[in-house]
Amino acid sequence: MKGTATPIKRTPSRKNFATEIEQLLASINRENNTRLKLILHVGTPKTGTTSVQVYLDKKQRKLRSKGVLYPNRFHNPNAPKHQWFERNLVAANIESLLDNFKDIINHVEEHTHTILLSSEGIYNNWWDFPEESKAILSELNGLFDVEVWVWFRDPLAFAESFYKQCLRNPQVDHISCYGRDLSFVEVLADPWFSQHLDYIGFVNECDELFGKASVKLFDCQKDTVATVIELLGLTTPNDNPTPRKNNCMNSMTAELYRVLNRLPLSAKEKENLVPHLNELDTTLAPYNDREQVVLIDDESRDKINRMTAKGMREIQKRFIE
Question: 173 in helix, strand or coil?
């Protein structure tokens, strides 16, 4: 007796992705025939992204009443951001990306006009997206009215914070500056690291993918949460969220991570040490101004300023007031 053949599961292609999303969008009942807006909230770390995400998560009901959907698809319940978006793009996992968008669209109501996705990882992982994933972003631009909201941090402050995060991260094969005992000078010489300071290069790529008018640049010196509230039409006299304070790792703690990175620790062993180092970092915080550890030397500062000066001038011309 012949057994029943197991059907072959086919991985969705870029074309299948666009076709299935288009069909699903066509099947939902909405108040008008205009395309749904898809906002991608992007920002370098420490630009208020976490405060925005926490606020939007808490205000989901209010957002829905205003026609804005902030999808409750958080793989980490303690971090209300959409990391699945960039992770699927890094891995070119079209099937998972499609499943996520199907679920989101199934929650679109008749009066919904905007879907908002937020994750700083969109920027951090941008240079790790393969061409296939960039093509998927182009498909999304044809399916939705895409807007990209970007907040950039001062390049020097970003470079220091990003360096500390690299020290903290576990080692991975494809990123040579993660989890290593490297000085800032050594990390800045790493092409993967230094390309993250190419803010204007990111902006230009987004302009090409989504159209220049769709890429909105904002000044991170202003209150990011207040800006987002105003953009979404949520401003009320009593709506005054308290911004979260972004604490940056002390330089002494960063040096301790370098010491740990000399050891053959597994990713799990290092992860188990992180809470203890966080506690130590909190204890050392009052002494931060007295510490003698200099992470970024004058030559590196000058180099970063030279690398980013022209791009920052162009970006500042495009700030949304």
Answer: coil
